[in-house]
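Figure-free illustration: sequence to structure, shown twice.
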Amino acid sequence: MPILSAPSHPLSNDEVSRIRNDFPLLSSEMNGRPLIYLDSGATSQNPVSVLEAEQEYYEQRNAAVHRGAHTLAVEATDAYEAARTTVASFIGASPEEIVFTSNATEALNLVAYSLSNASLGLGGADARPYALGPGDSIVVTEMEHHANLIPWQELAARTGASLRFIPVDDDGALRLEEAASVIDGSTRLLAFTHASNVLGTINPVEELVSLARGVGALTVLDACQSVPHLPVDVAALDVDFMAFSGHKMLGPTGIGALYGKSKHLHAMPPFLTGGSMITTVTMERAEYLPPPARFEAGTQRISQAVALGSAVNYLVETGMDRIEEWERLLGERLVVGLEQIDGVRVLGPRAGQPRIGLAAFDVDGVHSHDVGQFLDSRGIAVRVGHHCAQPLHRRLGLTASTRASTYLYNTTDEVDAFLAAVADVRSFFGASA
């Protein structure tokens, strides 16, 4: 089970105000206004403890890991592997099941290219069950981030497998009644998001995994929008692979992680090759280390991993159950408020339905980029565009939307200030009736 703090009193605006003191950037002003940062779905801010952890590594332990025998190298290796243990515990995994990557995109590509290599015959007999070819199918959903769509498009193109998708309805919800026919005996892999970065939807992992298990398919979970915001236990989810990024969970950029069940990581061929992931090399061939080293070629992301470990500790100390509940309240406040503004269409679940603490919306008669610039003039940072989910926006009849996403350091006053600003958008641009 993940190492999470015991259930305790929920977060409050007073406590969140104290938490904000740990985040230097949140005290900034933008365009002459106090910064209201509502773009954590793209990149979260960093507490002082995370900034100090990375600086302290460079000042006191900077050395190559898993290579040198001198004391400094040993200390660097210990710090790096301690971070792996911390991250593994956070999601209920074993350290050997965590591969550090640059981000979730690389983690997803790692799985795709490893399966591609297996399909080419690399990896020997152990990897043969992971090979794909004509007649096989890969299944995704219509709500995927491009990072969990394009790698599978490319894998299908390289192997001759077909790519299918579970569609969404007019409100953006998965058409689960169609999933059983899309996922069939030809399906070798199902890749889907835990929580949509556009809709805020929390997908039924257990139901989808059960469908995949029924036909012997592997499961890959994009957990970029869930691991930072919800208690996540990979043993309970029973997915084969899961990807997430450090920069969305208070950590630095340049670090992400792939969780993979040990039996898969031991059988699959590597993605990148070079130093640090081999046992024996001749001029003709090479033999590879067991995972996770097999998938961490070259100089590792050492300082970033150490800082990510510090970020996880901050989340654990705050309490993931408390963060989940606070963001549920903020998300509900966002949706209720937006639904009351004339000319605003909220994407995803309606008020009162489960969602993570974000809301994407369309303002009638005003392009999302103009909405974003108007909000920026009031010191409010949001995301605009298609959010790397063009097929989903196209299905909903849009080219772009505006997204506000909260985190543990946002207050209800900030949400209210955002809503008041959105209420002024149409009149400012002369789009109101």
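We now fold a second protein in the same way, so the two outputs can be compared directly.
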Amino acid sequence: MSELKNRHDFVLLFDVQDGNPNGDPDAGNLPRIDPETGDGLVTDVSLKRKVRNFVLLTQEKKPGFDIFVKEKAVLNACIDAAYEGLGIDLKAKPKSGKDGKKREKEGRAQGSEVEDGRKWMCKTFFDVRTFGAVMSTGANAGQVRGPVQLTFARSVSPIVSQEHSITRMAVATEAEAEKQKGDNRTMGRKNTVPYGLYRAHGFVSPHLAKQTGFSSGDLDLLFKALLNMFELDRSAARGLMSMRKVIVFKHGSELGNAPAHALFDRVHVDRVQTEKPVRSFKDYKVKVDTAGMPKGVEVMDLAG
């Protein structure tokens, strides 16, 4: 895979219909919201989770495309595997290691061993070389600053969170059934957003990509994951979520040809009608202002 030589900035536009795009565990799993503006929020962690899930499903067992942060993963065990793969015995107490120093603590890497472990982790795990990771626990493989960063997603218009009563025609235990006196219906609550269009921004740094080994092929896979991450992550709680636009600004250099914010300001999302509530992507008009585009910047619309 070829080395990444161009800076990229991108805009994500995705929507939700009759679902909860990202519940807040500190607020009874209600849809996240900015209390001052009423704008809906989706965390960068939530978006990265969906990218990780897509890569895990589509690149299963392919060398170099494992996922470090995944369900039921024991992170320290993954770090231990790095040193096993490198043939470094962290329990040994050599007279002198690569750095000419005695091991300070048994079972923990030090000096150049940490750098070797970091490189192994970047080579093995897609999400480490993409988003970075803190791997200084356990055996210690250091820290990685990822070349790809995402912001929180914020809804284009304020959202309304609706609460619904739901019933379940069953009970969990016999004792509960006796308490209900033959009526096995139990009540529950569900919160949804009728409709919300969310906007997030992303950045890709070639300089950090060199440090982690993130390649142009990895970038292609990232954009594929962003385009399709909702297709493989369906949930009744999340309703209908769809990626509507992935607008990419490709720079002609590593440093970039324009500030990211100036490029993002060229992406305009406006209401078609303001007299009625929005309930569809068709209620918005998306336009990219390409007039007077800075020299060396290429615009790509990867979705619809």
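Summary for the second example: The chain has eight helices and 14 strands.
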